[in-house]
Amino acid sequence: VAFPWRSVQHALVVGTMGWTYHHSNNKMNWSQAREFCQNNYTDMVAIQSQEENDYLVSLLPNRSSSPYYWIGITKAHKNDPWTWVGNNSTWIGDHSWAQNEPNNNHSTEFCVEIYVNGGANRGKWNDEKCANLKYPVCYKASCSQDSCSVHADCVETIGNYTCQCHPGFQEPHCEQAIVCQTILDPEQGSHHCFDSYGPYSFNSSCRFHCNLGFRLVGAPRLVCQANGHWDHPAPLCQVKQCPALNYAPTGGSMDCSHPIAPYSYNSTCEINCDEGYEFVGQNQIRCDHTGQWTAGVPACTGNMVIS
């Protein structure tokens, strides 16, 4: 603590969730008040709504007369906007100032006190010279390094806090990444994933490959998006096709076997020449993994002898 006096502080909000308000029974100027708050709590109170203003006033002990309480709104020059410490907000409610305030009565009234009394100005603000002595009002944030995961922003509220998850992560503390549907290997293929935050979860990237003789139909790479859906449908592995051989050579016949699909990878066709004809080329050809026949279609040549 930077000040030599013995201070008495009072916690004004019960509970461990959300920020708490504190004040000192020792009077100090505005700069000392802020330093006191930063050394002992988080900072001087920065009011952001009329609801918060009223709530704070309901908790502070009444004062019958000045001095009242310093709050964390100030400005550096006469024509500057009033600005809250910590967040640089310029929020000022429609009915925040006391009657005829702010009046900058001494041309250097650049700090603000809040009236907490039983009169008509209860909860209203008054601009004051920053050197005057008043009671500080501080707040202590409940958001800490452990409040939320690294994948969230901790947002303070009155009496509570929330973890505002970054895209791709889910409540309550945003530790768990959103998970996409499990992917299976395509028939006649495989896939391999790089997972940043767990299997098939946000930002997982999966690549697909097909077995020999099959080609990939669809996107070769899928990414799990923040909405829990893959960015593309899962691809398929389709067997490679050779040109169809739906005719028989002159003077012969052709017999084909198709273990996968007609005229596709590993299909074989055997040529048989009729009596009186002979082969030109191989009598058997096969559809290879590139979708080409291993040889040209054999022919049967010769003249049929009629007796």
From TrEMBL:
Gene Ontology BP annotations: cell adhesion
SS bonds (residue pairs): C165-C174, C210-C237, C273-C300
Keyword vocabulary terms for this entry: Calcium, Cell adhesion, Cell membrane, Disulfide bond, EGF-like domain, Glycoprotein, Lectin, Membrane, Metal-binding, Repeat, Signal, Sushi
GO CC terms of this entry: plasma membrane
Annotated localization: Cell membrane
SUPFAM superfamilies cross-referenced by the UniProt entry: C-type lectin-like, Complement control module/SCR domain
SMART domains referenced in this protein's UniProt entry, alphabetically: CCP, CLECT, EGF, EGF_CA
Function according to Swiss-Prot or TrEMBL: Cell-surface glycoprotein having a role in immunoadhesion. Mediates in the adhesion of blood neutrophils in cytokine-activated endothelium through interaction with SELPLG/PSGL1. May have a role in capillary morphogenesis.
Subunit-level organization: Interacts with SELPLG/PSGL1 and PODXL2 through the sialyl Lewis X epitope. SELPLG sulfation appears not to be required for this interaction.
Family that this chain belongs to: Belongs to the selectin/LECAM family.
Protein name, per record: E-selectin
